[in-house]
Design goal:
This protein is α/β, with parallel strands linked by helices. The chain contains 3 helices and 4 strands.
Length: 101
């Protein structure tokens, strides 16, 4: 039920910036492909960011999200370490972080 709850949350915050953290690059790719296809998410600007992307693509995605007045950035914690993005209203941890032992 996590994905329906995420969709509902994003619907309620369409005019704000939200960063959603996922455990894997595959999760980021999957959700970034699914969300824009859902009728209730058509109005959202959805961007994906993860460590398997080329540096130029990551930089372009980050710049685009930072400059936008609203939107959703789906990312892994590895790709998003140390990011300083202005005006982010919401941080959502979709998956629990993986413990490193």
């Amino acid at each position: 039920m996590k994905l329906p709850h995420l969709v509902s949350f994003l619907q309620d915050h369409t005019t704000e910036k939200t960063i959603v953290y996922f455990l894997t690059c595959a999760c980021v790719d999957f959700v970034s492909a699914v969300l824009p296809r859902l009728p209730q998410c058509k109005m959202l600007s959805v961007k994906a960011l993860h460590g398997k992307m080329k540096q130029a693509a990551r930089a372009a995605t980050l710049s685009s999200f930072a400059e936008a007045p609203s939107g959703v950035l789906l990312c892994t914690d590895v790709a998003a370490r140390g990011l300083d993005i202005p005006d982010v209203q919401w941080i959502v941890q979709f998956d629990p972080p993986q413990a490193s032992c």
